[in-house]
Each structure stands twice: as structure tokens, then as C-alpha cells.
Amino acid sequence: MTAVWHVGTVAETRTETRTETGTGRSLLLEVPGWGGNIAGQHVDVRLTAEDGYQAVRSYSLASSGAGQMLQLAVDKLPDGEVSPYLVDDIMPGDQLEIRGPLGGWFIWTPDMTDSVQLIAGGSGVVPLMAMIRSHAAVGSAAPFRLLYSVRQPDDAFFRTELDTPAPGVDVTWLYTRSAPEGWDRPAGRVTAADLAALTFPPSDDPAIFVCGPTGFVEAVASALVGLGHDPGRIKTERFGGK
Amino acid sequence: MATVHRVPGHVDGNALAGPLSEVFDFDVTTASARCDACGATAMLAEAMVYEKPHSFIVRCGSCDAVLMVVLQRADATELDLSGIAWLHVPR
Known about the structure:
The complex is a heterodimer. Chain A is α/β, with parallel strands linked by helices.
């Protein structure tokens, strides 16, 4: 599967999060010649400056299936080279080079019937969103649960869509810095007790997908193993950072 | 000549899918590699990848030994595969 570079044109931009800690935006890209992708896959995005300098970054896709319209979501890293451009500057009609679809490991396909536990930190929800949408699009009967950890309510990507999930998908929120008024659980990082209370137990033998910053993914994955989950059932995608 | 720059940081082997698609005609991330140092076998997607400008250092998820180094030069990609004792590529 040699991946080729495609030219994508921005069709629409949507502000997803806007807080004092940062801004996140999703981009809809029309990519002629795109052959479709599996939920969970990513693309490489390449930007070329006028002097020929190029920067490449990987972004997960929130979209899947056939069709030439892709959605990716980007968190602005204050000192980043690429993300500020994608979040603040790029406009409908602008073009990007896209390589993919990439990765055949961190994926969910409609023939998978096992229970699925999704665990996201911040913009790590993007590939898991593709799985949730794929699950709904095919009418899968596989039980799905998402545990979504964000700093504060405004930091959530795809909030509206996740507040009204399709049947068979259960969404649980976890706040690490500030919780909505009246929320039972005080704000704080995800713990083994949270995972025990809010996710499928090891006895259900769920397929588990964890995506987020490196520290989040490592804390969650080791806590899951500590709870008795088979490490072979846990797939992770780290995107660097703290 | 164009330079390609990536952000440093430890990510998963998933990140190799794009860069190594320039070299191999299969998805390396779903290939299983046996670590020459400790003998553990895992998919390359599960390895730890440290990105530096123009290079990737790929380490074993079990023992941290270097499995592979990918150097991206302006005119070529170079691979040091000496940490991989065996590779299984699904058809």
C-alpha cells in the first residue's frame, strides 16, 4: 500500500474548542482521487513554504468510509510550525498536500463484533470519533463506550455530536481541570478507580483503543493492565506532548 | 533542497506509516518485528518512536533497545535495521 500525495482543498472550517489554553479546529477537505479510509487511520499533511521548506505532520481522520471528503481536527500548539497555520490561517479554498490513508493497526472495521472501549484525552478523540461514526453508519450491534477526558467543558471536540450519540454508544465525560457545575466527580486526572467504574470490565474482554497525549496514554494503558485487561487487547496511539 | 522537519517526542510506531510508505510497498506498522536484544515480538505499530529532525529512532516497547533508525536525507532514505532479528509481513 504505497501511499501517494494527494492535493486536498479546504471546503469548510469549524471551530471546535476555544479556551484560554488553546484553540482547536476541524477541517473538511475535498480530496479528488481519495480511495476512502478505515476508521482510525491517519494522514500526513505536508506544507511547503515559498522558499521550498517543507513541514510534515500526522493527523488522525474523524471521517471514514468511501467518499472524497475528509475531516481532520487540529489542536493548536502555541510553538508549533504547522498547527497555528491550520487553526488560525487556512481558509476555504486553500490547498494542502495529503498522504494516506495510513496505518492498519489502530483501526475499527464493521466486521468487528466485540465490545469496544474507547478512551480519549483531548484531541485524541479524533480517530475514535471516526470509529463511532463508522459504527453508526453501518448500524453495528457491537456495544461501544467512550470515556472522554478533557480539561474543561469547552475543550471538547465534537461536543454536540457526542452529547447525542447514536444508539449502542455510551459516552462518559471526565474533567481534569474544571468540571461543570453540579458535577459529581471533582476535576482531576483519570485514575484506575475511574477506569474501573466507567469502562467495560476485563470480564467483558473489550477491544480497547486509547488515544491522547503520551502521558495520558501511558497512565491509562498501565492502569488498564493493572485492572486485569489483556495487554494484547489494548491499542494505543500517542501523539506526543506531555 | 527541501527540508522535512517533524516535532520531537515519543509516539507510537503508527507514525512510521507515512514516511516508510516511501520505501516499502506494504504497511510496515502491521509487520511484526522480533527485537534482536530481548527477543520480544511485536507489531511495529507498538514500538516507541522518537522523532528528530530528519530521523526516527524506533525502540522496542519491551526493553527499549533500538530496533531501527530511519534517516531522511535530501536525496535518499537510509535505514539501520540491525536491531530487528526477524520480520513477519502479513500478505
